[in-house]
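User: structure tokens for Alpha/beta fold hydrolase, please.
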Amino acid sequence: MAAFLLIHGSCHGAWCWRDLIRELEQAGHRARAIDLPGRAADARPVRDMTLDLYAQDIVSQIADEPVHLLGHSAGGFAIAAAAELAPTKIARLYYLCAYAPRDGLSMIDMRREQPRQPLLGAVRKSSDGLSYSADPAQAVPLFYHDVASTTAHWATERLCPEPIRPQATPITLGAAYASVPRCYIRCTDDRTIPPEYQAQMAATFAPEDRYEMPTSHSPFLSDPAGLAVLLTQIAGAN
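Assistant: Done. Predicted tokens:
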């Protein structure tokens, strides 16, 4: 069985993987999640948050056994940066309705090239311009529209500000990143990252490494059992 390390997306934290971790463990895997730098428990100034720091933090959490590293949404950049830094520590990269980076672009660059901008008007920049927050009133229709109402409320209450600097930093990817196997899971009912843009990103992956789920942007909450089955299938086939 596989060892999974789960990396959250914008305004989320390790908490969002609660249900998926349970399902993966029931399937016999080892699974854990971490908070990226800049969450509430991190005392460092938000101005010190960087994409490199994200990568270093992920790599520091991996011991001897290579992990199956899954990134959700903005977490796609963090897992790619970690793979470039320490490719031998990663068995496979899993992009879950995530930004799959291209060398020389930032996440913000990629978001701007989307055909639609669902988050326009749904996020608020902080007064110092260093972070942004999701509007709680719009969280359910954007992130959790197919999630049970009690779970969606639980998740909305835990959303936190997101540092901007890591997302504005162009990523550098080379041979190290290219050496790591990767796959893409597109969510066809996603209302945060347009599914057609996910298809565009996934088109750069080998056909056998492209998968789909008929869910929102948060399959780890709306269908954790189905996601665990798919991850088990992918991990076992490679």
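User: Anything notable?

Assistant: DSSP finds eleven helices and nine strands in the chain.
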